[in-house]
């Protein structure tokens, strides 16, 4: 895998954001495989496809690429995205894409992660202020993706500090995380929130530890009057999927 961008394709372009989009999308098309099925290449989506840059011709998985110039391996910053309503409509559909997040510097890839589509939820989309009335696109409202809010285990490394991770390992991890996918947006949100709480606990934790987040979850899900029961339900789901292990007496262990 060649980690260097082809800058020759940007001749004639002046916009920094446009240049970044062109060289990163070109790099992905030339170098990356499908993390879902292992197909050796991805193809560009049709022009102007909303929130969809690439697809796998074999399994039809869809991907969106977001890039940022940075020299750190931590994906804990905001990533600028497009029009707020378009993003929300797309990620809450049943065929929402998975997202690649790419860090680059000196025109080469430093880090690349993939986040399966079941963890791209409205909670991580931050609405920006509408453009002023005197702007060319007055009223247009963009958004940011809050990558730092995504549970850590859902950020699967493909390239880390310039080192390419074994594709078989990436596909295995992707499909393990993607097994949590559900067609219910409500369940997707609950799973996301409970996993974020688990992120803040030790490798071995108790049900009592997780109940400490009840008030926080009640704020996020005000229509639910059975928060603790919902927590137990999500723990059961994660246990069935092998992401956590029940040790007995209300004690759990992370396998993520």
List keywords for this structure.
about 260 residues, alpha+beta, about 25% strand
Tell me what the structure shows:
- The protein is globular, with a radius of gyration of 19 Å.
- The protein has helices spanning 16-31, 84-91, 167-178, 185-199, 207-211, 214-220, 227-240, and strands spanning 43-44, 54-55, 62-69, 78-83, 98-105, 108-115, 125-127, 142-146, 156-160, 163-164, 204-206, 244-248, 251-254.
- The longest helix is centred in the first third of the chain and has 16 residues, at 16-31.
- The chain has seven helices and 13 strands.
Number of strands: 13
Main sheet strand line-up: 1-2-3-5-6-9-10
Counting H and I runs of at least 4 residues, what is the number of helices?
A: 7
Give the helix proportion (percent range).
Answer: 25-40%
> What proportion of the residues form beta strands (DSSP E)?
15-25%
What is the 3D form?
A: globular
Alpha-carbon distance between the termini?
28 Å
Biggest sheet record: 7 strands, mixed
Rounded radius of gyration (Å):
19 Å
Q: Please provide the ordered H/E string of secondary-structure elements.
A: HEEEEHEEEEEEHHEHHHEE
User: What class would the helix/strand composition place it in?
Assistant: alpha+beta
Mean residue pLDDT: 90
The gist of it:
By secondary structure, the chain is of the alpha+beta class.
Secondary-structure topology with pairs:
Elements: H1 16-31, E1 43-44, E2 54-55, E3 62-69, E4 78-83, H2 84-91, E5 98-105, E6 108-115, E7 125-127, E8 142-146, E9 156-160, E10 163-164, H3 167-178, H4 185-199, E11 204-206, H5 207-211, H6 214-220, H7 227-240, E12 244-248, E13 251-254
């Amino acid at each position: 895998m060649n980690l260097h961008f082809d800058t020759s394709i940007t001749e004639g372009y002046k916009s920094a954001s446009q240049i970044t989009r062109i060289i990163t999308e070109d790099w992905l098309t030339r170098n990356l495989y499908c993390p879902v099925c292992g197909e050796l290449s991805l193809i560009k989506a049709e022009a102007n496809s909303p929130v969809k840059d690439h697809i796998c011709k074999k399994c039809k998985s869809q991907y969106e690429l977001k890039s940022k110039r940075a020299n750190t391996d931590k994906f804990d910053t905001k990533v600028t995205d497009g029009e707020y309503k378009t993003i929300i409509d797309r990620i809450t559909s049943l065929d929402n894409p998975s997202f690649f997040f790419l860090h680059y510097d000196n025109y080469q890839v430093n880090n690349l992660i993939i986040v399966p589509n079941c963890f791209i939820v409205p909670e991580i989309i931050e609405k920006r202020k509408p453009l002023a009335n005197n702007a060319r696109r007055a009223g247009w409202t963009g958004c940011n993706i809050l990558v730092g809010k995504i549970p850590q285990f859902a950020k699967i490394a493909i390239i880390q500090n310039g080192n390419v991770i074994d594709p078989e390992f990436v596909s295995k991890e992707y499909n393990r995380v993607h097994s949590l996918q559900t067609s219910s947006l409500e369940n997707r949100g609950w799973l996301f929130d409970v996993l974020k709480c688990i992120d803040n606990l030790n490798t071995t934790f108790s049900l009592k530890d997780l109940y400490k987040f009840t008030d926080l979850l009640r704020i996020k899900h005000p229509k639910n009057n059975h928060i603790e029961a919902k927590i137990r339900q999500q723990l059961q789901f994660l246990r069935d999927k092998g992401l956590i292990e029940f040790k007995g007496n209300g004690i759990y262990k992370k396998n993520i």
